Amino acid sequence: MRVTFTVNGRTQRADDVWEGESLLYVLRERLGLAGSKNACEQGECGSCTVRLDGVPVCACLVAAGQAEGREVETVEGLADRATGELSVVQQAFVDSGAVQCGFCTPGLLVAADDLLRQRPDPSDADIREALSGNLCRCTGYEKILDAVRLAAARTGEAD
Amino acid sequence: MDFLRPAAWEEALAAKAAHPTAVPIAGGTDVMVEINFDHRRPAHLLDLTRIGELHEWDEDGPDIRLGAAVPYARILDELRTPLPGLALAAHTVGSPQIRNRGSVGGNLGAASPAGDSHPPLLAAGAVVEAESVRGTRLIPVEEFYTGVKRNALAPDELIRAVRVRKATGPQQFSKVGTRNAMVIAVCALGIALHPDSRTVRTGIGSAAPTPVRARAAEDFLASVLDEEGLWESGRPIAPSAVRQFAELCSGACNPIDDVRGSARYRRHAVGVMARRTLGWVWQTYTRGEGEARCA
Predict the structure, then answer these.
(1) Could you report the per-residue pLDDT of A47-81, keeping only the tens digit for each?
(2) B263-292 pLDDT per residue, tens
(3) What is the mean pLDDT of chain B?
(4) Nearest CA in chain B to A57
(5) Which of B81, B98, B120, B148 would you call most buried, defined as having the most Cβ atoms within 10 angstroms of its Cβ?
(6) For the stretch A16-29, what's the b/e string if a residue is b when 16 or more beta carbons lie within 10 angstroms of its beta carbon?
(7) Are A152 and A98 in the same domain?
(8) Domain of A153?
């Protein structure tokens, strides 16, 4: 089947999509957007987190056909498209040393970005809750929490 | 595989009638896992995400009529007051990503004994609206679960909504797992006080082939509260009665040993959760809302 939807503001079309295929597979294998990572394929790890119509979801659990006509935002959409400048959350991850092997990073970035859109000044409990669906096996999470706090502080300063 | 994408509820019912083996999919948090792992290759996927009314809820007399596909995140945000037990359980489902997609209709459709919605639905009192082109059936939730991952739906039926009784007293939910997020319940328990009818209801998850009510425990506690005039006096429930209630809840279980826990542990844990949650709801009933607790 053919699936047409918006990815990071651009209309994208994928042909010959198998009906049981996930949105994640379409993004990675058909549209070449390999930022969203494929790991558990069961919604456990959060590495494939994207926003679907503005709501964070695991792309591995969205059937491709369910994305028809919808808007998807992936990690590729976070940085400024024209200048390549990193978003506040991305820069905070770099500056805080929140990235080790990097596999979980795209999902964490999308989840953290969404948190700060909902709650610009989150408590530690808010951060832990918002990131509870994203597994990281390298960092022990402390640097990730630091990064989100830093991004929140920088967002606050900018305002 | 065919991907059926009805735009309206009537179309969905017609599609299910034409293809009774079609697998309904909304949030996909169960169905997509089965497809990703090649555990299931349905001939038809029936996408329900375009049907607006499944994603809405409204008040209907004493009930909340909860559309089958309303995600847990919205239950948490919007229905905490009328459905406190279900909201507490919703908060323990998966992660934010899962709660944005998963729904009570999906939990009922999957009918896993470990589904987090089941204990609070049993405790609050709920009726499942099953609909087909032949008409609507209202199935009390305790009759809906027929076996491990089996439910009372006919092949041509879809879940339209679940009618959950609005709380008239405190409700609680407790769940045992290895962490606060992304946990399939080792076992779980919901309790609801119904001061209007002077009854108590319970729901136990993941401790029997289906979610169950501990009816003997409910009857015992209701008679203690009644005979000792505790609904009126608000005095503490005698420790011996609390203990007896917990033992009767344990006795309602018929658990198995599996990777998440042993049968013996589950029976024990259900008793502990029964005692604790009874303490919490009784404190709320007699003294108003206490401090927020981790269930």
Answers:
(1) 999 999 999 999 999 999 999 999 999 999 999 99
(2) 999 999 999 999 999 999 999 999 876 544
(3) 96
(4) B97
(5) B120
(6) ebebbbbbbbbbbe
(7) yes
(8) 88-158
Q: Are residues B100 and A55, on separate chains, in Cβ contact within 8 Å? A: yes
Q: A61 and B25 in contact by Cβ < 8 A?
A: no
Q: Nearest-CA residue of chain A relative to B23?
A: A20
Delineate the domains of chain B, giving CATH numbers in brackets. Answer: 1-46 (no CATH), 171-287 (3.30.390.50)
Say whether both A24 and A72 belong to one domain: yes
Which 33-52 residues of chain B touch chain A by CB within 8 A? 33, 35-37, 41, 45, 47, 49
**C-beta atoms of B100 and A63 within 8 A:** no
Instruction: Report how far residue B152's alpha carbon sits from residue B145's, in angstroms, rounded to the nearest whole number.
Output: 6
- Strand ranges, E, within A49-108: 49-52, 55-58, 71-73
Closest residue in B to A56 (Cα) is B97
- The Cβ of residue B290 has, within 10 Å, a number of other Cβ atoms equal to 10
Q: What is the domain count for chain A?
A: 2
Query: To probe the interface with B, which of A17, A132, A136 has the most B CB atoms within 10 Å?
Result: A132
Q: Looking at the structure, do residues A39 and A96 belong to the same domain, yes or no?
A: no
Q: Please answer whether residues B193 and B124 qualify as being in contact, where contact means their C-beta atoms are separated by less than 8 angstroms.
A: no
Residue A137: count of CB within 10 angstroms of its CB: 10
Contact check, Cβ <8 Å, A46/B41: no
- Residues A7 and A66 reside in one and the same domain: yes
pLDDT at B289: 63
pLDDT in tens, B64-116: 999 999 999 999 999 999 999 999 999 999 999 999 999 999 999 999 999 99
B5 inside 8 A of chain A by CB: yes
Name the residue in chain A with its Cα closest to that of B73: A55
Q: Do B2 and A19 lie within an 8 Å CB cutoff?
A: yes
Q: Where a domain ends, among A47, A77, A107? A: A77
